[in-house]
Amino acid sequence: MSAKPEINLFTIGFTQKSAEQFFDTLIKSGVRRVIDTRLNNVSQLAGFAKRKDLEYFLRKIGNIEYVHILDLAPTQDILDDYKKNKGEWEVYEQKFLELMRSRQIEKKVSPDILDCSCLLCSEPKPHNCHRRLVAEYLSDKWENVKINHL
Description:
The structure is a single chain. The chain is α/β, with parallel strands linked by helices. It has a domain at 7-73 and 111-123 and 131-149. It contains 6 helices and 5 strands, in the order E-H-E-H-E-H-H-H-E-H-E. It has a 5-stranded parallel beta sheet with strand order 3-2-4-1-5, with helices on both faces. Helix 3 packs antiparallel against helix 4. The longest helix is centred in the middle third of the chain and has 15 residues, at 89-103. The chain is globular and about 40 Å long.
């Protein structure tokens, strides 16, 4: 029985990065697909990260595919409790993990689509961001997932 091939899964946040830094990082890392995990993908936090613009720039600059998967995003209620109501990260994390379990996200995305893909969110660092939780959750469900935070 042969070992399953390694899945290279990247994560990136677009805030506190210039467009040049953002796109260069993706290209140099060999990312072939960006999977947008935001609930609201028309964000004004960075002009280049709005859905239609991002999809265009990824294709033109790096020949990178763009996919938006809402099942990888928190609900508005979970997000509001954390962001607007200044909730605790641990509570957010537990609620989001339960949401992923109930959605069975491991059945909605395949390991093939995740290989050389990059989970996108707005947070500059992965520590308190749901993209890290998504990556770790899927890594726990599947074998041979190598997570690279860009």
